[in-house]
């Protein structure tokens, strides 16, 4: 996993939903100001819903302090559009089925579920500056209190 102070590769594209619109963007273009990237596994699952509800409830707080908020999973943008409507999400939802962000942050790990082993990104969060420098990391997200832990991290920077 990357460490605070490391500069990540930002030269890859993602499909995103912003303001209800689907588009393809360079990850670097999302970094027009300090950006929080919250990685979750899948839309419409218990822990991931808690994680995103927490962020949705506090999205204005991050906006007021000059931070972009991006939640990233392997779900499609079609799924993200419905998910944003369901949870009242105003921030960017990014689709990363190829784990490009996880590769950039060296956060692909082996997981086990239902007796199967597979590689997937960690449920983590990153504060990234406009030049790709990692300013802060939450290695293991508390799904219920995710916004609070991010607020604490932002205030410590």
Would you mind describing this structure in some detail?
The structure is a single chain. The protein has 157 residues and is of the alpha+beta class. The protein is 29% helix and 31% strand. It is built from four helices and nine strands. It has helices at 46-64, 77-87, 100-104, 146-156; strands at 13-18, 21-26, 35-39, 68-73, 92-95, 108-113, 116-121, 125-128, 134-138. It has a seven-stranded mixed beta sheet, covered by helices on one side. A hairpin with a 2-residue loop joins strand 6 (108-113) and strand 7 (116-121). The two termini are 20 Å apart. The model has no long low-confidence stretch (mean pLDDT 93).
User: Main sheet: which strands, in order across?
Assistant: 2-1-5-4-3-8-9
Beta-strand content bin: 25-35%
The global form is: globular
Show unreliable segments: none
Strand count, sense and barrel status of the largest sheet are: 7 strands, mixed
| Counted beta strands | 9
Q: What does the oligomeric state look like here?
A: single chain
How many DSSP helices? 4
**Distance between the terminal alpha carbons, to the nearest Å?**
20 Å
Rg (C-alpha, Å) = 14 Å
Please provide the ordered H/E string of secondary-structure elements: EEEHEHEHEEEEH
What is the structural class? alpha+beta
Mean pLDDT figure: 93
What percent of the residues sit in helical stretches (DSSP H or I)? 25-40%
């Amino acid at each position: 996993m990357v460490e605070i102070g490391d500069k990540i590769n930002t030269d890859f594209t993602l499909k995103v939903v912003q303001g209800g619109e689907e588009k393809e963007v360079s990850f670097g273009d999302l970094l027009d100001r300090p950006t929080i990237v919250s990685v979750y596994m899948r839309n419409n699952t218990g822990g991931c819903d808690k994680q995103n509800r927490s962020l949705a409830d506090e999205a204005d707080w991050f906006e007021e302090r000059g931070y972009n908020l991006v939640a990233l999973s392997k779900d499609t943008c079609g799924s993200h559009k419905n998910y944003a409507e369901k949870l009242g999400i105003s921030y960017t939802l990014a689709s990363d089925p190829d784990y490009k962000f996880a590769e950039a942050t060296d956060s692909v790990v082996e997981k086990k579920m239902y007796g199967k082993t597979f590689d997937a990104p960690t449920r983590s969060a990153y504060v990234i500056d406009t030049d790709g420098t990692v300013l802060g990391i939450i290695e293991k997200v508390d799904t219920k209190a995710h916004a609070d832990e991010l607020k604490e991290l932002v205030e410590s920077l």
